Amino acid sequence: xxxxxxxxxxxxxxxxxxxxxxxxxxxxxxxxxxxxxxxxxxxxxxxxxxxxxxxxxxxxxxxxxxxxxxxxxxxxxxxxxxxxxxxxxxxxxxxxxxxxxxxxxxxxxxxxxxxxxxxxxxxxxxxxxxxxxxxxxxxxxxxxxxxxxxxxxxxxxxxxxxxxxxxxxxxxxxxxxxxxxxxxxxxxxxxxxxxxxxxxxxxxxxxxxxxxxxxxxxxxxxxxxxxxxxxxxxxxxxxxxxxxxxxxxxxxxxxxxxxxxxxxxxxxxxxxxxxxxxxxxxxxxxxxxxxxxx
Length: 294
Ligand code: NAD
Prior knowledge:
9 strands; N-(1-d-carboxylethyl)-l-norvaline Dehydrogenase, domain 2; six-stranded parallel β-sheet; 13 helices; binds nicotinamide-adenine-dinucleotide; alpha/beta; Rossmann fold; 2 domains
């Protein structure tokens, strides 16, 4: 069993750390929120007084923070965790951030003689709790192989996308497509409803036709079609509109960097921005359906 430092015990990091504890690892936790620390101590973790304190004896460090500036602040600088770690530490950042920051942090870790991978996740809070997340890794083959036993305690599907930063690129490509699919599915269902077709019947037709996609299979945006999805629960729980906007911004920045054309993502980004401004920031992203519903 390894000593794992886990930093960032929010909606995702909290249940991810719980799964490491359940698998018998010696988990040392740190978060800025005291209540989050206390909860993990009840589950068997050791609470550290600071991030630097948390990593001091760790074999592996996992970070799960909101955005790039949190990650850069945690790792780099005089009070960064890189300098506090013992030799041969493996750092895994699972936050969703831009690839350029992931590469900068990765380089700083490599300069220190330690190892870094980016490993953003897909699967949401439910996947984090169930230990069924998908990890999309960027790093060397050796680093990825070292990370797998730890990540498999928290997830089911482990992909190696390429070098450091590639995990972040692959993750935001997927979420960009998800935003387009959710918007398009909402548009099609609303057109059907406006023309007198029952959305359940329309969903069944598309599920067996060429319009079939993940949102229809697992996450129907129209209330009353599917059980156990956010649309059934007034769009509460799930993946918030403000986080989808963060990912769409990352996708558009990435596209700008390579001069790639992303017209459908641009349309989805405008829709999701308007939707967030309309008071839906904290609702699930399938609530985009409301933009189309009469
Ligand atoms: P969250 O805001 O619930 O949790 C972040 C945690 O990090 C908080 O507890 C905060 O106190 C802590 N934190 C911030 N700065 C810190 C620091 N310097 N040191 C220690 N702790 C610090 O966010 P979340 O929903 O858990 O998301 C985390 C990451 O996962 C984000 O990058 C998000 O985009 C990504 N993600 C989220 C979901 C989802 O459904 N929520 C799905 C996939 C990916």
